[in-house]
Amino acid sequence: MELPRKLMLALFWAFVLNEFFQIQHVYGATVSYDSRAIVIDGKRRVLVSGSIHYPRSTPEMWPDIIQKSKDGGLDVIETYVFWNIHEPVQNQYNFEGRFDLVKFIKTVQQAGLYAHLRIGPYACAEWNYGGFPVWLHLIPGIQFRTDNGPFKTEMERFTRKIVDMMKDEKLFASQGGPIILSQIENEYGNVAGPYGEAGKQYVKWAASMAVGLDTGVPWVMCQQADAPDPVINTCNGFYCDGFKANSPSKPTMWTENWSGWFLSFGGRVPYRPTEDLAFSVARFYQRGGTFQNYYMYHGGTNFGRTTGGPFIATSYDYDAPIDEYGLLREPKWGFLKEVHKAIKLCEAALINAEPAYTKLGSAQEAHVYSAGSGTCAAFLANIDTHSDATVTFRGTSYHLPAWSVSILPDCTNVVLNTAKISSQTTSMQMKLHSTLAGSRSMKIAGIEMVSPNWTWQQEPIGVWGSKGFSKSGLLEQITTTADSSDYLWYTTSVQVDDNEVFLKDGTQPILNVKTLGHDLHVFINEQYAGSQTGSSSQSGFTLKMPIALKSGMNDIALLSMTVGLQNYGSFFDTWGAGITGPVILKGLNGGDKNLSSQQWTYQIGLKGEQLKYYTGESTATATWTSGADLPKKQPMIWYKTAFDAPDGNDPIALNLLGMGKGVAWVNGQSIGRYWPAYIAPASGCTDSCDYRGAYSSGKCQTNCGQPSQKLYHVPRSWVQPTGNVLVLFEEMGGDPTQISFMTRSVKSLCAHVSETHLPPVDLWQLNAEIGSGGTKPKPELRLHCPSSDQLISSIKFASFGSPKGKCGSFIHGHCKTDTAMSVVEQACIGRQSCSVEVSIDKFGDPCTGTTKSLAVEASCS
């Protein structure tokens, strides 16, 4: 039977493309650079990159997150390599599960994207100890990140280990893999000063060592103005448009464009306006950049004890285009996608020309790339922080909103302005679910729920096991525990004579404890006496607390806790943690009593950690108590219950409001530290944030007066439909019956587009037809459901005229048509995505002489 001609052609081209990619895989690509750009197989490239850290999500999430990154217009996925998770014990490696670096890079490759491997191996990244394993600190004579033999030996060994792994799997571009760039060290230039000449020698050594590993791809050093050739120095920050490499032979690269900022326990929730982020991107390419990376594009979650800081929260959402749960953050994701399209329309000009600068006004300027043969691209910027401007460029008038860039891929037509967002927004919701298995009913937030059957265990106070040990004086915590646990018990005793005045007059002696932090609980004679907490802005604190002592011998047990080890700063590895003293008891007849140098007994960690209570299993040494007398608001309690997973595929969150501080596990997997009792300051937030003007981490914040974090991501792959086990260790005291499981989903899709908005970038036909008077495309309102298996099921609101409000609260204005709802429903209902032209041709003109807009709110199912 003869095959149809079209099918034969399709098979032929499929064969040709398959052979092409097979050849590429076998023979690899040549990656180099010149003064303008990264060069791949002899061609300069304009590249857009985004950071995704493999341990901050799960292997089950990786394909979806990476595909969404590609759909958003990225070319490259960037990740750090985290030494401490891969080598938790010296010469014992872990590359399984979330730590499967090879699988992550191969997932990037399967999506058809490039990779940038930031080996470091110092990462910073708000990661515990900056990514260094604590055993490294215990090597005799070692000094981190300087010209120190023991450190350089270990750093080279691990770096070589990672490079060899990538080579073995043929993952460098020179071997046919996706890795086109590698990074050695990280932001060392920011902290190098105190290291002096030894630091300068270390930089030279690190660069030489890395280049000598012969990866076949360029190496970079970010924030390193003295990066030796051939290593490329790159920029990190909220803005890098003024950055230039340290050699005219190197391209201008931006390895971290901060899409938001990290969240600290006790802090407000920071965010960065989309318009400002888009402005920073456009300005960078406008002024000669050709490689830009978002930090983060997907932030994810600090599972387990991976947070650094200290006091970095479990959520690492970072206000990224893809949120912590793997869902699109709109309009940030959608508008940046349009920005990337506009930049790529300029690529031919950007890679073949140097920018020509023209001043257009007091705060307005143009950069033009003219490559000959009619290839021309221009960027018009207004960097005024308050006032819009109208400028004349090449004989044509252009309106430039304040703090914005207009992109003209043909030097004539504006296809995008960074201040004019027409992309859809989304209204997110957290739905409460009756998923905790149990037997009695109760109401949470007015909704009838099922309260679970909880069981519990009491964590012993002070020394609890045979591994307790005694020493004279106070021990530094990190060196003592090697960071095997957040917890270290310091216990001692004090004798109180019968004649002490405070025993008779009702006063209490004062306990003073100086500690490097980060948190401290006090127990007197096994009774909880109180706590004190530090903050991310402190290097320690002094606890001052009245305590109740009795006549005779009194036991004092101090539980010192770390909340992630320091990850940044010169000599950060020497800063230490725990109780350094003095520990003084004031108010005694004989004056102050210094307890610092007396005998102290130490216990590393918790009994429940050693016996693995977090698995939820009952053993001969770990029996769980049940009954009606569930302890609430009591410290040092382990709680356990069973739960069923919420139906569907929406991401899951555990709402821990009502608990104090501790750690949570689901089916033995740590979802991280929780601390809903730590409340953000009551002031410093605004309902809206002006995107105009330089952004800083404290500029735009929400969540004042609320827990810094109450919702904790539980990956779907960690749960099964039924029979799941939740275990909590509560330090301070909480009520576990108040917690609940929730799912995160899109409540509504919204868009509000004016008839004066620019059309979507892909509607522009930048060719001779427009240049010779062809029809200019018109603005469109576009909606798309977040999942490919969803369809637009209803239109909640539609108005063409002068609608007002925002997503979820649109209202009609004084001017409106009667046809908007029917037109939008006809275009959108039953479709995964839809577009509607915003014009009077489509809707009629309800108010002549007035600029009109279309506002729509829809839902998907």
Approximate strand percentage: 25-35%
Low-confidence stretches: 1-26, 766-772
Radius of gyration: 30 Å
According to CATH, the fold-level topology of the largest domain is TIM Barrel
Instruction: Count structural domains.
Output: 5
The class by helix and strand makeup works out as alpha+beta
Largest sheet: 8 strands, parallel, barrel
Q: What's the arrangement of strands in the largest beta sheet? A: 4-5-6-7-8-9-10-12
> What is the CATH superfamily classification of the largest domain?
Glycosidases
Distance between the termini: 44 Å
By CATH, the architecture of the largest domain is named Alpha-Beta Barrel
Overall, the morphology is globular
H/I helix tally? 16
Task: Please identify the top-level CATH class of the largest domain.
Answer: Alpha Beta
Total number of beta strands: 45
- The chain-level mean pLDDT equals 93
What proportion of the residues is helical, as a percent range? Answer: 10-25%
In a few lines, what is going on in this structure?
The chain is of the alpha+beta class. Helix content is 17%, strand content 31%. α8 runs parallel beside α9 (332-345).
